[in-house]
Amino acid sequence: MKAKYDFSEGERGKFYDAKAVFNILNSHEEDIGQKMRLNNKIAIVTGAGRGIGKAVALRFAEEGAKVVIDDLNDANGAATVSAITDAGGEAQFVNADVADTTDVKRLIAKTVDAYGTIDILVNNAICSTADVLNNNWEANLAVALQGTSHCSNAVVPVMQKGGGGSIVNIASVNGLIGLQAIHAYSAAKGGVIALTRSMAVAHGKDNIRINCICPGTIQTEVWEPMIERNPQILDEITPWYPLGRIGQPIDIANTALFLASDEASFATGAIFVIDGGLTAGNHQFPI
Fold first, then answer.
1. 247: pLDDT strictly greater than 90
2. 16 is catalytic
3. pLDDT above 90 covers what percent of the chain?
4. Which residues contact 47 (CB under 8 A, 6 or more apart)?
5. Segment holding 48, helix H or strand E
6. How many domains does the chain have?
7. Which of 30, 140, 257, 271 fits a disulfide with 184 by CB distance 3.0 to 4.6 angstroms?
8. Cβ neighbours around 15 below 10 Å, total
9. What is the DSSP string of 148-184?
10. Residue 64 DSSP code
11. Which of 5, 16, 185, 241 is catalytic?
12. At 52, is the secondary structure helix, strand, or coil?
């Protein structure tokens, strides 16, 4: 059965306003143009070939960042780069497995060789949907948890040398509450939350801010296998959300943008739950 949802425009979504930018005022309070929140910042986004990672990469590029796209799928990675460069931004692709420390070192080295430093790291890579649904512990822990650790540990020395930086980890509401029977994924994401707090405490002295985003259900391609089994699954999930909708990748990308920017200069070790109210409580509970 054909999937009901089209993900081709999923990086944006109908709730995204491309005109929502900050403007710079000079000393006479005259508008002198757009302020790009990540102007000339160097960012790495893992798992950026599609879904949340792609939305984050596009959003960062819109705000002036030079973005290194990491993904294991060459075609998807190249497509993200093209989307950025076609719009006038700067990006390049590196195929690196975050579960492999040698690959991670190569990713960091290529970025430093190209741009001289690294200001932002977004740990977004995740294993396949099949591995999530089948509770493949090795794959979930290797990519989501150890991969986040590998990339963070490799980038810290670069950020220390540069005077600081921002690391944004993508976890999940599954790391906060019990959902479904996908235990390995939930445990890995719970580990990402704990890792975020631990590393934030360790590296505050280095002016490296480390924060975590816990998304609720986000309409991305990872849902395709589940939609093939049940084309109505996202419609069935939606009533559990107090806001009456599931999330779009841009909802997470905008949060990542805030955390990567100087606007979040006093935020570290924080867990940002972006879930449409799912974990706030059961709004359908009868009283």
1. yes
2. no
3. 85
4. 53, 70, 71, 98, 124, 125, 126
5. none
6. 1
7. 140
8. 11
9. HHHHHHHHHHHHHHHT-EEEEEE--GGGTS--TT-HH
10. T
11. 185
12. helix
Pairing of strands 22-25, 31-35: antiparallel
Q: Which residue range is the domain that position 134 belongs to?
A: 39-274
- Residue 8, domain member (yes or no): no
The predicted model gives 222-236 an average pLDDT of 93
The amino acid occupying position 3 is A
Q: Which two three-digit tokens encode residue 149?
A: 């650790």
Q: Which residues pair with 168 in a beta bridge?
A: 122, 211
Q: In the structure encoding, which two tokens stand for residue 280, read together?
A: 């706030």
In a domain, 65, yes or no: yes
The enclosing domain of 234 has a CATH number of 3.40.50.720
List the one residue out of 246, 136, 256, 146 whose CA is nearest residue 195. Answer: 146
Characterize the bridge pairing of strands 120-123 and 208-215: unpaired
Specify if 27 maps to a domain.
no
pTM: 0.90
160 pLDDT higher than 50: yes
What is the C-alpha to C-alpha distance for residues 235 and 59, in angstroms, rounded to an integer?
27
Q: Is position 30 within any domain?
A: no
Which of 197, 195, 242, 184 has its CA nearest to residue 216?
242
Phi, psi of 19 (to 5 degrees): -90, 0
